[in-house]
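hiii, so i know i said id send this last week but things got crazy w the move. better late than never?? heres the sequnce for the chain we talked about at the cafe, plus the structure i predicted for it. fair warning i was half asleep when i ran it
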Amino acid sequence: MSTLTRVMIIEDDIAIAQLHHRYLEQMGGFDVVGIATTQAEAEMQLELLKPQLVLLDVYLPDGTGLNILNQLRGENLGCDVILITAARDVETLQTAMRGGVVDYLLKPISMDRFMKAVNKVTEKNDTSHDAEVEDDYFFVKADKKLIRVNFEDIIYIEGLKDYVIIRQDTGRIITLQTMKSLEAKLPEAKFKRIHRSYIVNLDQIEAIVGNMLEVIEKGQAKHIPIGKNYRDDLLKIINDKRL
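okay and structure toks below
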């Protein structure tokens, strides 16, 4: 399990930069550490921020994204790059792809196309880290800071539109994230989706009562609904532990 991927957006149109920022927030798993609108600003920030992924606009007021791409490669900063352009300049794109760009996006960019490009990066990196030992925690953004969440401290997770609520005995953490993206970060052996709006820590289950699952939250019994589409899989796990 890795921490959030550090992303830098280099884009002279601040409205587009903010849109891409929102896309990343909705996907989950990313931390936008900086936004630069010029080549000079980007060059100053790259060394300091050390992003793992750069969303790089080709045309900037004081230069081009290819100049920055050359800097990234020349200084071996070790980050992935997705190129963004408003013009279908074949020669420029071919040069960029030879420079190691993961993908390129043509403006205007739909969220679906944006996600496909970003997922190329995460899939590539997931493959390269398959042999690593999984962590027992992750970080989420909440209250304008990154908060560490230990797996063992989670009782259950509740989905609420574009937000999730992580329930712990020490309190709740509300973060802008989808249930699907958060579920992907959790170890399958310890966590189970039991309803479209709930994920439960299997170690926290106290009882099954009809179509409800019981956990203990702050010393009190809490009953969580079991969705009919999830019931059979959950009962199989329970029956495997049954005497």
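btw The longest helix spans residues 111-128. thought thatd interest u
miss u guys!!
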